[in-house]
Design goal:
Layout lengths: L10 H4 L6 H8 L1 H4 L5 H5 L2 H5 L4 H10 L8 E3 L5 E3 L3 H7 L4
Antiparallel strand pairs: 1-2
Length: 97
């Protein structure tokens, strides 16, 4: 809608690029990156939820169940990352457009 060029990667269909997860975890932390309020998380059995104890176990779950990742994860032209959508955050990244 803003006329910006984008490259969309649907990690629910195409999978989560394993090489990107460490940067996402470092930028946001597993507690922000995991969508614990979402349907996929709630459908997991208690053992699967309890098994997420560190970044490695969180990454393994995200690879197996990409829908547990909060969306969108955006990598901007300057290399910075944002998580989730708010009009204000997107406007700030777009130079106030």
């Amino acid at each position: 809608a803003q006329g910006l060029p984008v490259e969309f990667h649907d990690y629910k269909k195409q999978g989560v690029p394993a090489e990107l997860l460490p940067a996402w975890l470092k930028a946001f932390g597993r507690d922000r990156l995991l969508n614990r309020a979402g349907t996929t998380w709630r459908k997991l059995d208690e053992a699967a939820r309890a098994a997420v104890v560190d970044d490695a176990s969180a990454a393994a779950l995200m690879q197996a169940e990409p829908s547990v990742i909060k969306r969108p994860v955006v990598r901007w032209a300057d290399g910075s990352l944002t998580l989730g959508f708010t009009p204000e955050a997107f406007a700030a990244q777009q130079g106030g457009r």
